Amino acid sequence: MARQNFVGLVVSQGRMNKTVKVRVQGKVYDRRIDKEVIRRKDFLVHDEGNVSKEGDIVRIEAIPKISKRKAFAIAEIKVNKGQQFAQYEDLAKQRIKQEDELEAKKFIENREAFKSIITQLEDLRKLDQISHDITSGEQDTEANYQNLINEVNSIKAKYNIKSWPTTEPIIDLELNEPVYTSEAERRVYHMQEILDKVMNDSKYSELKVKILNEKLKNRPIDEIQKSVQKNVLRKYFMDERNELPFAI
């Protein structure tokens, strides 16, 4: 006698060893409503090699019962969509791992740079304290005085300091200039400055009137609220295609 066969979709895989859940869908005539309806049934199916993946379309056939609920086995993988999904999953995991490694490397570099800055600040504070001790004459003996002078000279040589106190920059803390990843970020950062100049500086009054007339259809400027004018100008200058009237 021919074995019972079904074609279905693997809806669950990996929760049990050598077992997948296959959903079989078919049409059944329902006499109560006198029409065909779609019926779905899930089967626990034996997968000896754990080869099928979630999303595969497989053909299953009846076998002698292996357990109470498992009486079918994978006979053929018809469409291996699940294999493609698994490849996409693996690729996504690799990319996430690479991004995590890059972030970790960047974090370590920033931490080392921060440690270096802290060390430099501590050295300069020490240099300041030693200089104060020398000028105040708190050292007891000539040997102590010479030791302080040697420490001062070693710190000066380390950071190439010609004299102390000094007005020359020694440590670059990179706090003055923000880092922009795009032109839009740069404009957002300076937007208040741009709006203040265009709104209040007479040099840019002609440009302001031109922009407002284009957007507000020649309405009298005096009748337009300041907040509305600012919103129109902000939208205009946020568009990277429009040039700024001055360098920022």
From TrEMBL:
<dbReference type="GO" id="GO:0005840">
    <property type="term" value="C:ribosome"/>
</dbReference>
<dbReference type="GO" id="GO:0003735">
    <property type="term" value="F:structural constituent of ribosome"/>
</dbReference>
<comment type="similarity">
    <text>Belongs to the universal ribosomal protein uS17 family.</text>
</comment>
<dbReference type="GO" id="GO:0006412">
    <property type="term" value="P:translation"/>
</dbReference>
<keyword id="KW-0687">Ribonucleoprotein</keyword>
<dbReference type="Pfam" id="PF00366">
    <property type="entry name" value="Ribosomal_S17"/>
</dbReference>
<protein>
    <recommendedName>
        <fullName>Ribosomal protein S17</fullName>
    </recommendedName>
</protein>
<dbReference type="InterPro" id="IPR012340">
    <property type="entry name" value="NA-bd_OB-fold"/>
</dbReference>
<dbReference type="InterPro" id="IPR000266">
    <property type="entry name" value="Ribosomal_uS17"/>
</dbReference>
<dbReference type="GO" id="GO:0005739">
    <property type="term" value="C:mitochondrion"/>
</dbReference>
<dbReference type="GO" id="GO:1990904">
    <property type="term" value="C:ribonucleoprotein complex"/>
</dbReference>
<keyword id="KW-0689">Ribosomal protein</keyword>
